[in-house]
Amino acid sequence: MDHRLSTIDSNNMNNPIGKLYLVPTPIGNLEDMTFRAIRVLKEVDLILAEDTRTSAPMLKHFEIHQKVFAHHQHNEHQSSNEIIKFLLQGKNIALISDAGTPAISDPGFFLVREALKFNIAVECLPGATAFVPALVNSGFPTDKFCFEGFLPLKKGRQTRYKFLAEEERTIILYESPHRLLKTLDEMATYFGADRQISVSRELTKMFEETVRGTVVEVKQYFETHPMKGEFVMCVAGAAAKPAKGKYERDEEED
C-alpha cells in the first residue's frame, strides 16, 4: 500500500511533538524480527518504507496494517519536509528500509539530521544489519574496523582503493552480484592478490555462504559458482608499518 503524505489529516500544532523511530527489519530470515520492532510498527501513526512493494509482504506477515509511504533516495529531500511537519504535529513515524537497519547504505541519514534540527526525538531500535554477522564470521579482527559500504561506481573509486590499501583495520564493503568479479580484480590490483578476504552472501537465508581466502582464490571460486544475492566483503587490514626511528626515540627517553 503506497499513500501520498498529503492524504494524512493534519492535527493542530498544539499537540506534543512526535517521535521518529528507525526500525531494523530482517535481511532475509523473518525470524530475526524483534518483538519490539513489531510493537513499534503497530503503534506508530505511519510507516516510511524505502520500497513499499518490498516491505508489504513482511508487514502483512506480522499483521501490521499502518499506512505506508515511500521514502527513498530519489524523494527523501522533498518528503523529509512533509515528514518533519507531521512529526511536529504529534505524529509518531517509523522508518524502515528494504532490509536491515535504516541509514546504513540506505535512506535515513538526511531525515534524522532534519529531525534533530527541530529537536524531534529520534530512537533507533537494535536489530538486523548485514555487515555485523559478516564481520564476526570472517575471522578478521573485530576490535577495530572501518565500514565503507558501496564504493563509488566511477568518480573517486580509484582514489578510494589507494586510500584503503594502507588501512590497517578490517575493511567492510558491500557489493552487488554483477560487479563482484570486477571488484575482486580491482582488489587484486590495489590490495595485492594475496590479501586475505572473506565474502558472505545471502546472509540469514537458506543458501547463506561465506567464502574465505586470498583475493585470487575467492575470485576463482565465484567464477564457477552462483553469484546471487547481496554481498558483504571483509578485507584483512594492511600489515602495520614500523614507525621510523621508534627505537631510537625510545632510547633517548630512557
TrEMBL record:
<dbReference type="InterPro" id="IPR008189">
    <property type="entry name" value="rRNA_ssu_MeTfrase_I"/>
</dbReference>
<keyword id="KW-0698">rRNA processing</keyword>
<dbReference type="GO" id="GO:0005737">
    <property type="term" value="C:cytoplasm"/>
</dbReference>
<keyword id="KW-0963">Cytoplasm</keyword>
<dbReference type="GO" id="GO:0070677">
    <property type="term" value="F:rRNA (cytosine-2'-O-)-methyltransferase activity"/>
</dbReference>
<keyword id="KW-0949">S-adenosyl-L-methionine</keyword>
<comment type="similarity">
    <text>Belongs to the methyltransferase superfamily. RsmI family.</text>
</comment>
<dbReference type="InterPro" id="IPR000878">
    <property type="entry name" value="4pyrrol_Mease"/>
</dbReference>
<keyword id="KW-0808">Transferase</keyword>
<dbReference type="InterPro" id="IPR014776">
    <property type="entry name" value="4pyrrole_Mease_sub2"/>
</dbReference>
<protein>
    <recommendedName>
        <fullName>Ribosomal RNA small subunit methyltransferase I</fullName>
        <ecNumber>2.1.1.198</ecNumber>
    </recommendedName>
</protein>
<dbReference type="InterPro" id="IPR014777">
    <property type="entry name" value="4pyrrole_Mease_sub1"/>
</dbReference>
<comment type="function">
    <text>Catalyzes the 2'-O-methylation of the ribose of cytidine 1402 (C1402) in 16S rRNA.</text>
</comment>
<dbReference type="Pfam" id="PF00590">
    <property type="entry name" value="TP_methylase"/>
</dbReference>
<dbReference type="InterPro" id="IPR035996">
    <property type="entry name" value="4pyrrol_Methylase_sf"/>
</dbReference>
<dbReference type="InterPro" id="IPR018063">
    <property type="entry name" value="SAM_MeTrfase_RsmI_CS"/>
</dbReference>
<keyword id="KW-0489">Methyltransferase</keyword>
<feature type="domain" description="Tetrapyrrole methylase">
    <location>
        <begin position="19"/>
        <end position="217"/>
    </location>
</feature>
